[in-house]
Amino acid sequence: MSVRMSLTFALLIASAGAAAAQEMCGDPPIAPVIVSAAEMRAKAPADAAATEHGGFADIRRWQGSLKSYRDCLSATIAADRRSALEAARSEKPDKDKIARFNDEILASGRALDASSDLEERVVNEFHAAQVAYCTRKDVDVSSCPKT
Questions:
Q1: Tell me: the pLDDT tens digits for 21-79?
Q2: Sign of the dihedral defined by the CA atoms of residues 46, 51, 52, 58, in that order
Q3: Whole-angstrom Cα distance, residue 132 to residue 137?
């Protein structure tokens, strides 16, 4: 009976591993708030410069956290794929277990896609604010991209 309980416990841990792996990644990092182009144009020159620089620094920090989050999701996908393949190759494949791994793979893939979409939106918002800053005549545009 003790061996049977140990095997049952081991199977329980293994099946929960896929769900736990995605939960290990946690929620995606919170995106920085970017001022709109209109708000950037309305700011005093010194405030606009500080906002433009601060926005850039915030995005860089966020992208670093986003990379770690995505690395975790990618590792989870790879582990779930290996587990699904192992489960499929076993003597008696457990279709429910394989389906759970595949669901985890899809969920992690959707989370990766959502993080990419969010990053694109935030970077586009920053770019619009940066253009608003760089087209002003009353600020130092030396940090602006050359056109």
A1: 447 799 999 999 999 999 999 999 999 999 999 999 999 999 999 999 999 999 999 99
A2: positive
A3: 11
Q: Per the structure block, which two tokens stand in for 116?
A: 């990419």
Residue 20 and residue 6: Cα distance in Å, rounded? Answer: 20
Return d(Cα 91, Cα 72) in angstroms, integer: 31
Q: Are 96 and 11 in contact (CB under 8 A)?
A: no
d(CA 119, CA 137): 29
**Domains along the chain with CATH numbers:** 34-133 (1.20.120)
Closest CA to 130 of 36, 2, 18: 36
Instruction: Give this prediction's pTM.
Output: 0.78
- Give the pair of three-digit tokens for residue 32: 């920085």
Angle at CA of residue 118, ends 44 and 53, nearest 5°: 25
Closest CA to 14 of 72, 86, 71, 69: 86
